[in-house]
Amino acid sequence: MIPRFTDHAANERTYLAWVRTAITVMAFGFLLERFDIFLSYASRAGGQPISNLHTRASEWLGLMLLLFGALIVLFATFRFYRNRKLISSDETFAYGGRLFERLMAAALIAMALFLIVYVAHQIMALS
Question: What residues does each domain of the chain span?
Fold first, then answer.
């Protein structure tokens, strides 16, 4: 039997949840990077191409989300192995590692605010 199996299993489930989150963030980044195709199609379908659409912003934000997803996997892997080592240890440790979660939350909030402003601007340009 594996000592502290439930703790190791919880650590692995948490790691897999981070990986799923990273895949979702990267998929959204890819979709957003290709958002300019939708915008140009929608503007042409509306009767006239609109020249003031800022599609470069969606491309850059999509690329940032792709990189952010890769960083999530990297940091989640480091955290998984650190927690695995701490679980196997007989010593008692204080729970730590909240900085990464706070930085990710702040980055996602900043990206969400940018998306709100960006999409609102694009909708106004299409109107």
Answer: 5-126
